[in-house]
Structures are given as C-alpha cells and as structure tokens.
Amino acid sequence: MVGRMKIVIVGGVGGGMSAAARARRLDESAEIVVLDRGEHVSYASCGLPYHLSGEIPDAGDLLVQTPESLRAALDLDVRTRHDVVGLDTAARRLTVRTDAGTESLGYDALVLSPGARAVRPPLPGLDSPRVRTLRSIPDAVALRDRVDDGARRAVVLGAGFIGLEAAEALVARGLEVTVVELAPHPLPPLEPELATLVTDELERLGATVRAGVAASAVEPGADHDTVVLADGTRVAADLVVLSVGVRPDTEVFEAAGIACERGAIVVDPHGRTSAPGVWAVGDATLSTDAVTGALRPVALAGPANRAGRQVADAILRPEHARPVPPALGTAVVRVGELTAASTGANRAGLRAAGTAFHTLHLHPSHHVGWFPGAEQVHLVVHAAADDGRLLGAQAVGRAGVDKRVDVLATAIRARMTTADLVDLDLAYAPPYGAAKDPVNLAGMVGTNVLDGTLRLWYAEEVDDALATSLVLDVRSRAEFASGHLPGAVNVPHTELRDRLDEVAAAAAGRPVRALCGSGVRSHVAHRVLAQAGHDSASLSGGMLTLRAALGPRASDLLVTEGEPALA
Q1: Domain of 214: which CATH number?
Q2: Which of 3, 55, 98, 525 is the most buried (most CB within 10 A)?
Q3: Whole-number Å distance between alpha carbons of 365 and 367
Q4: pLDDT per residue over 478-515, tens digit each?
C-alpha cells in the first residue's frame, strides 16, 4: 500500500487489542489508534470473579497492559475514555465523545471490536445501587467493596458462566448466596444429566439454587433489597449480581448502515463487514456454529483474540490471510471442586438443526484407578448417526476434565470420527491417564454403537422401558439394594450366562433393557443377551447417568426395599 496507513480500532480488549498488536508486527509504519470508552484496556476480564473472591487480591494484576506500556512496546496510540458515538462509512470518519468534547477521526481501515453489554431485563428495581453487573474492573472493585463493607446476603441473577463464577466467589467470601436461573438448570447449554452435578456442588458449597423460575422485581430497601421471584418467593439481598446474558454493543454501527442480524454484525470469513474498509471481530459479530451452522454471537475470549489476529492479516497482507474459522464454543468453568467444560453442539442444538446423532455417556477415571487420587470424569459425547463424526462433548469432574474436552475440541475441528478417537496416541503414565484414555474409551463405545456391536437406551426413555420391557439390573445384589428401578430384575452380570432361561421367562417375549452402574457391565450383558436372541439394549451411562438425569425425581422413582424378582 502507498503511504502511511491509518488503522483505527474501536475496543481495546480481546479482539481489538489482538488486532492492534498483530497490525503493528506486520507494519511498523502504520498509524494505529485504539479507542475505548472505558478507563482500562487490555485487561483480563476473565479474571474479574477471582478478584471478587480474593484469589487475585490486587485489581491492578488484571491489567495486562496500559496505554503507556502499549505505546512503549508497540507504538500504539491507545485512547481511553473515548466513546465512539457516530460512524460515516462513506467519508471513513468516526465521531468520538471524549472528556474534552466531541471530535472527528478519519481512518483508512477500521476494526470494530465493541464487545457486548450486559442484558438488563425490564424488571422494576434494577436501578438500585445494590444491583451490579460483573463486566469490568470497576464492577469487580465495587462488588468487592460492598462485600468488604459487610454484605452478607447475595442474589445472583443468571447461572451462566459468569453467574456461577460470581456465585462461587461470593460463597468463598462467606456470603449466603442464592442463584436464580430461568432455565431448568444452571449452565443452560450443559446437558441436564451433567448440570445436576453442578447444582449438587453449588448446594454442597452452601448456595441455594432456584432454577426454572424468573425474578420479577427488585424492591430497594433502607438496609437491604428484596428480590421477588415469579413464584412469590422473596429473598433478602445486600447485593445483587445481574448476569442474565449479554447482547452485542452495536447500536452505533447498525445505525451507520453496517449490516447486522439480531444486533450482531454480519462479517465474511475474513471479518469484513458490509461497509468498505470496515472489519469486525469478537462478541459483537455473528458467528456460524461449526457443527450445526446456526448463526449466533460467541462471547468467548479465545475466538475473539484469534479473530483479531486474522483480521489484521486480512487488512495488511490479504494474500496470506486465513479465514476466521467458525467457533466451536469451547468453554470451561470451575464450580467449587468441580470443573465443567463443553465444546461443539449439545443435544438441543443438534435437534434444532435436524441432525441425526447418538449420545455416549461414560464415567471413567481421569487416571488409572489403582493409582491414588483417581477421580471420575463424567463424559457426554455426541456423534453423527451415519458416520460417527464427532459433533459435541461435555464433561464434569474433579480432575482431568479440561484435558479431555480440549482433545475432543481438537478432534471436532479436525472432523474426526469416533473410530479416529480409538487410535489417538495420548500420553499415559499412572498419575496422568490410562492406557485406554477416557477419550479412547469414548471412541470405542461410539464405534461399537455405529457398527451395531452396542445398542443403547437412554435415561429419558426410562418410563417407556418400565412399561414395555424387562429392565434387567446386572449390578451386584448390594448395589441393587441401594436403589433400583421398580419392577427391575437383578441378575449380576457374572451369573447371566447361567441364568438366561430365567431371564427369557421373565421377559416373556418383551425387549430386555439392561443397566449397571456406569454402562460397562451392561454392555457385557447386552452382548450375551443379543447373541442369545434377545431384543436387548444397554443403558447409556448406567445408574450414574440415570440418577443425574432424574434429578430430584430419583428419590421418588428408585426403590430401596423389596427382593429382586430373580435373586
């Protein structure tokens, strides 16, 4: 390009700053200006809950860079408290509101990275000073100051990632915490059978979880506020954390004619918007789901940072620029002693897309069981019904969760199948894994399902199974006595081959639906039954998944008294 290029970037966190840094590395002569309406740029927004908890005592530690350090290291002109309030794409000029007044700023290339703002539903009382979001360093400092000043009761509205991190932080500070979530369970994208484990952990920590109910109002008071729920429940609160979601912060740019859908900026694979010379990245852009093709914003730091780099390439060396890949939405969160992580599509997304799939439930140890400290990884994997291509994965556990979900995210990106997982050569030593890693095991189970070696039935089918089939519980007698499905027959899997005649008589021509603790023994039983001519299937994930899927209903449905029919 001829002359000195002027690149203006709106938004100095995540994608915007990544674009600025990459642009400088590619072009030492470019004039690069970064505008941000806030007081801070290049800060670790993902660390905000950990300042609230006290794990990061000094808020200054969240400042990765300052305008001064960015000027010194990269010769970037970073301007804080500069709010973009207008855009003329034909003239290539921005209108910017500053403390000194309004100014006009031209550009050759413009990168929009405005991020997202917290959703504020139309609830009475949200203007109370006790109601705060957790989106910026001042937010985190204000919440922590309120705790330090004696707050003892908190209500968190919304149980997404930020909401749960805030709840965990407040519990760690000794507050009485109530988490309110409109969806049926915390972490709504998580499969229900895994979300139950998260709910249990929140309650173990001491939090109260109110799921499936909305907040209808916040009533300000002299000493505290009261959060009123739709079912009439009233919860006293010294502080309220509002975390019910985010929406793209794009009004100014949409008004300027930048094409948007549902408030998110439409971009091509290289981040170009509908306006010449304008690119966009991050939470404010519309992303194509890598698995289902659904269009939605993805409010995650990793995709935003990577997109910023790729957009800088598209501006300064387009002949070498790679497209911004569709996001998988890989995410992880700590809740007490548990880690919950996910990647790719969940069941709801696959069903909405009309994708035929099967689901695998596994409960392996994160390393070999005979080495001290082994913890279960509760793993859910979705695979295409026709070829076993990996579509999504989720896991919850006390150890080893992030490692497995990261491997599975890589496998989904590479369009691997369950058969490919069997062949992955993963690191093994007793403190770290097993010769058959949980990822390998998922591949083995998925391949068995695909080729017909294994047929699964699911916890959601339990009522139908009880009505139409012989439910065969192949656990030990002691396990059976600890809780079993009503009408189930107990034949330990080690005795099954010698008692097939009894099973046939009990089935009386009905299908046989086998179950065990985690799905391993019932797979063995299924192979015996299928080869004996029975219409057989094995419960995916066994009693562990069934209990989690049933949730509170488990105590009503499962039987702990009476003798098994064939014991």
Answers
A1: 3.50.50.60
A2: 525
A3: 5
A4: 999 999 999 999 999 999 999 999 999 999 999 999 99
